[in-house]
Amino acid sequence: MLGKLNVKSYLILMAILPFLLTCTLPQGPEESPVTLSVDDSGEVTDLSRESRGELIRGDNLIDMILREGIDAELANSLVLAVAPHVDMVHLQPGQQGFFLYGSDGDLVSFQFEEQDGSLVEARVEGDSLQVAVKNPVLTTRVVLVRGTVESSLYNAAVDCGMPLNVFMDMIQLFSFDVDFQRDIYRGDYFDAAYEVVYNERGEIADYGEIVMARLYTRGATEEYHCYRYVKLDGSRDWYDDAGGTVRKELLKTPINGAYISSGFGSRVSPITGFTHKHKGVDFAAPKGTPILASGKGVITLIGWSDVYGWFIQLRHTNGYSTLYGHMSAFARGMRSGSIVDQGQTIGYVGSTGMSTGPHCHYEVIYYGTKINPATMKFPPGESLKGDDLDLFQLERKSLISSFF
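The structure assignment produced for this chain is given below.
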């Protein structure tokens, strides 16, 4: 619905993303402009061109080389030369090869880019091939983007060029304070400064961490800030303006991309038809959607209940417990006594037990009393102190002055 977070496009994207990443139509080699080789005196010594190939789904390395037009004998020699230095078992669509030709049109060098950014080069020298491995020369820069919500927070991120993994990191950082199903409105916006890693050709090789982010919600009337800081002991986390960690005891919601189908309080049961108090919150989502542990804890109960169906209960610190019901299945490794991390997948949405459709029934219990997870104020985590707090405030002010 316009003005609220549109999760439909996000769910569709997550479903088809693996296909989009791997199903690429075959393409011919991409040629770069002619390049000149120049000696120390500044004279042109050779005329050459570079061509670029790319692995597509189902390719072996030799397929890409043959598609370049290299004859079969030389192609086999190139593969045999670089194979000891290339992870041939885990080749991925999109990995690139570079072909350098001399002025006579003969191949001078073949370079293949590994997934870590290193280049394995086979250079033609007479009748032999000389192989060398070049470690990647990477440069990290911090870029700032701003996204404004028109139809959804996700579309705002796409429109400003924010990559999906950085967007999901930002969602995770703010999910301790923000309910993304209810708190996002048209006109809300965010600023995010994050790392971009470039290779020596000036191409984006990877994306790093969020350095600073600000989110303005509920018609931009509420705002949330976070800043990355590496403590003196070497550990790093994200903190608010006062130096308190943004991580709380529990997440606001245990499912990404769900909506509340039934809130906490009195309601008419769709199963029995009687009015009773609903002591949890129901998050509707497609069957199989991952259910996340809202906080680090230990599994105290796991199994079947006539009411909850397949369910898990976790015990957290400071008197908190959480329960997740109506699962279709448990995640691998889940058993009584298992320790799970905050945000870890513990099961999958289903409609088992007393349920009329796929959803997760979520309860928060505080010292034995079930409380409303939608309205409670979750306890904060640690805060910086002493020299760490002083250094953090200096870095925070430096970041703000650099970007605003």
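Interim note for the steering committee: The first strand starts at residue 30 and ends at 31. The two ends are 33 Å apart (CA to CA).
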